[in-house]
């Protein structure tokens, strides 16, 4: 029977440990899930109807991973994101604890997998607390809402062509007079020139568009028009002309536009799911209110900065899409029903 040299055995054991450690580090670097985790997910209301699984915002989440404890709040879409900076090994437990004043506390324990843990998206559901009988009252005292619609004002700027302007002016000068370095001079510096300037004002709320300036009489080839004062239009424009020959005549033509702010009232109908209503509005909306019949009486409820009414608690968030729409979500308070 062969006898293994103890020194070779120790070398073999050391090499094996080095190989195992190298493999472990390689797995971590290759995003295997053995490194630090980013825990992200969403918290929703529990309901068999997926249309009623509304996001739960401002819920408190306490996440425990080993000796690490992190507390965050969900945003208006029920979203949470917690980066765990310490290495989390496969098989480790993540303990989730959610609390919200309108929902029953939720506790969940999740085991960390080998490869998918870093990219896993968690979806949790909380059960809404029932309305106490003392608050809800009897059926006879429940206020009924009907014929709800949303009213808002949209402002838009409109422009109309209210006319045009035509004007002539002269650029006076005497030709064939040497410049002798007495500015202004012709572009080549030989002849004495003059600068003539004409200013125009369209009036408050008006502006010039499509301004045209041209030389119509006199030695036009010996003139130069400076367009920097009118090429962008505006309420006030100026035309500057350099003339290094005899007197010339210029014509100015432009169209005048008037800008006005127009307000229009729009109505839309919300979508109802159980005791909630949802609707979206353009980003530039103003004066949002809800029109509704309360026990047969039509009333108007403005949505102020807190977007709440006497009969519903509402939240608003801005959509992440290109239109940046404002998304409203309202939930009935106790004592009211649709």
Helix content: under 10%
Oligomer: single chain
Specify the biggest β-sheet. Answer: 6 strands, mixed
The count of strands amounts to: 20
List the helices and strands and how they pair.
Layout: H1 6-29, E1 36-45, E2 60-65, E3 68-73, E4 79-87, E5 93-100, E6 103-111, E7 121-126, H2 133-136, E8 143-171, E9 194-201, E10 206-217, E11 223-226, E12 236-243, E13 248-268, E14 271-273, E15 276-281, E16 285-294, E17 297-302, E18 312-318, E19 326-332, E20 336-337
Parallel strand pairs: 1-7, 8-20
Antiparallel strand pairs: 1-4, 2-3, 2-5, 5-6, 8-13, 8-16, 9-12, 10-13, 11-12, 14-15, 15-19, 16-17, 18-19
Any descriptors?
single chain; 338 residues; mainly beta; 3 domains; 6-stranded mixed sheet; 4-stranded antiparallel sheet; flat
């Amino acid at each position: 029977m062969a006898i293994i040299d103890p020194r070779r055995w120790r070398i073999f054991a050391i090499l094996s440990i080095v190989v195992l450690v190298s493999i472990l580090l390689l797995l971590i670097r290759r995003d295997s899930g053995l490194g630090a985790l980013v825990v992200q997910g969403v918290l929703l209301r529990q309901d068999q109807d997926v249309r009623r699984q509304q996001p739960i915002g401002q819920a408190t989440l306490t996440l425990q991973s080993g000796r690490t404890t992190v507390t965050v709040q969900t945003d208006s879409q029920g979203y949470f994101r917690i980066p765990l900076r310490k290495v989390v090994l496969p098989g480790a437990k993540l303990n989730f604890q959610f609390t919200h004043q309108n929902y029953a506390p939720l506790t969940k324990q999740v085991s960390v997998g080998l490869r998918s843990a870093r990219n896993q998206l968690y979806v949790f559901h909380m059960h809404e607390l029932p309305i106490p009988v003392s608050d809800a009252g009897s059926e006879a005292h429940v206020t009924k809402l009907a014929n709800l619609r949303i009213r808002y004002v949209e402002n838009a700027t409109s422009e109309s062509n209210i006319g045009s302007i035509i004007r002539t002016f002269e650029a006076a000068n005497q030709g064939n007079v040497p410049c002798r370095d007495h500015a202004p001079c012709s572009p080549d510096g030989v002849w004495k020139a003059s600068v003539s300037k004409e200013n125009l004002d369209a009036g408050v709320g008006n502006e010039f568009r499509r301004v045209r300036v041209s030389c119509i009489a006199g030695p036009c080839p010996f003139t130069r028009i400076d367009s920097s004062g009118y090429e962008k239009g505006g309420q006030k424009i100026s035309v500057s002309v350099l003339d290094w020959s005899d007197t010339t005549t210029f014509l100015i033509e432009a169209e005048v536009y008037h800008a006005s702010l127009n307000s229009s009232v729009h109505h839309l109908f919300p979508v109802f799911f159980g005791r909630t209503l949802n609707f979206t509005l353009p980003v530039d909306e103003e004066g949002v209110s809800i029109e509704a019949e309360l026990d047969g009486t039509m009333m108007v409820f403005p949505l102020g900065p807190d977007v709440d009414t006497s009969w519903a608690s509402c939240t608003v968030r801005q959509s992440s899409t290109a239109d940046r729409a404002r998304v409203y979500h309202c939930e009935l308070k106790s004592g009211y029903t649709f």
